[in-house]
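Standup notes
- DV: blocked on the single-chain target, sequence here:
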Amino acid sequence: MSVDVIVCETCRRKDGEDLDGATAGRQFADALRGLIASDADLDGVRLTTMRCLMACGRACTVHLRAPGRMGYVLGDMSADSDRLHALITYLRGYVRSADGVVPYRDWPDAIKGRFVARIPAVPGND
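- DV (later): unblocked, structure below
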């Protein structure tokens, strides 16, 4: 089953400055894309970007979703190594879960407090 990771590419640093001509969201997406591509446990995870996830006060934001699973929007992310690796660890748990719920005990410390929204799975056609 595929998992989508959608990063807001227009998220900006709190000071509004871009680094090397790239927004913080773009830098975060690029760094995350590299980690996902090099992790065999994340085969089938697709990273895309979109122009705004409308959580500007919590930049950088990312949405995790998969068919039949709970979805999540996380904020206050960055290309910082600790946050990236925490998200990768959480994402591994998300990929393994049948319903998208990763037990709290398995959350890395750097992911705690970063959740913006929990989005129910879309019901199937039963």
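- Follow-up: The first strand starts at residue 3 and ends at 8.
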